Amino acid sequence: MDPLHLEGKSTDHVTDRQRSAIPHISALAETIAILAGGIILFLPNQILVKFFFVQYCEKYHYYIKPIDPPSASMLALMNKLAMDNLLDEFAGLKGRIVYEPDLRPVKGRIKEEEKLRTVAEAMSRNRKIIINYKPFGKEAEERVVQPYCVKMHQQRMYLHGRAENPGRRRTYCMDERMISVRMTEEKFQLPKGFDAEEYFRNAFGIVPYTEEIKPQTVRLRATPTLAGYLKGVKLHPSQEILEETEDHTDFAYYLAPTIDFLEEILRRRGDLQVLEPLELVDKLLLLLDSTKKKLEEGRKAVLKKTLE
Questions:
Q1: How far is CA 265 from the centre of its chain?
Q2: Any idea which of 2-11, 251-260, 280-289 has the lowest mean pLDDT?
């Protein structure tokens, strides 16, 4: 499909009037979803089309561009919108289909969306941003960042980019720690060939790797019960089945075993064994030992208070 150019006007939502202004587009689309910097159309034949809005030129223009193939992130968005549309179609079922709750404060979600809009605009224009960021337990600082991408993880949005001080890539959570963000007039050049999904391919969460923790092969052994769950929903996209018996299933992963991955293993510790690397087993044992000590200290404190 060749790009289709249409003169238009900036909008944050699509009204019936705007639909009628572009009938050959709205007639095709089953769903129109608004994203920062563009509109997503879902067509009856399941062809995904991104309806961009270009506002930084002499004349305002719309154009349609096919996405081939859709990214994993775009497919996740499609699934979310499909559920929203289903609930709209069967309004009486809204109280009987339950979403995973979003536990963020409402004000926090609104602010995150506002920050996302600013970051998305800066990314689309290759402009640097200035963020006022306050890590937990530290003082707030202003930082100049080249915004490369945004990643969603566990109901939070994370900005990844190059911070000019200390001059290396950093990842910032866009929750209350990011107090404010504003776009500058100074431009930057996105690294050639940068692909956000490829960059995070070997990450379990938001950290692709560190100087000490590199991507490596991890082998896990799961009980038949847990193996069933892992076959249905992979622990990581790199998951492969190495061996399957009546008593267990062995899985292989290629990822950077950062702390969030270790915590996930501990969460399933009753049904999961680490076969390799042995260094990972040692790290898990240290975490278990630390957890045991904290639990014992808490128990002693409660008993002491009870006896007073």
A1: 20
A2: 2-11
d(Cα 74, Cα 19) in Å, to the nearest integer? 23
Q: Is residue 45's pLDDT more than 50?
A: no
Average pLDDT, the chain: 77
What CATH number does the domain located at 216-294 have? 3.30.70
CA–CA distances in Å: residue 265 to residues 51, 219, 231, 278: 41, 12, 16, 14
Listed in order, the ranges of the chain carrying CATH 2.30.30 are 106-199
The DSSP H or E segment spanning 19 is helix 16-21
Please, which residues have CB within 8 angstroms of residue 73's CB and are 6 or more apart in sequence? 152, 197
CA distance 217 to 256: 9
CATH code 2.30.30 for 106-199: yes
Indicate whether 22 pLDDT > 80.
no
Rounded Cα distance, 14 and 255, in Å: 41
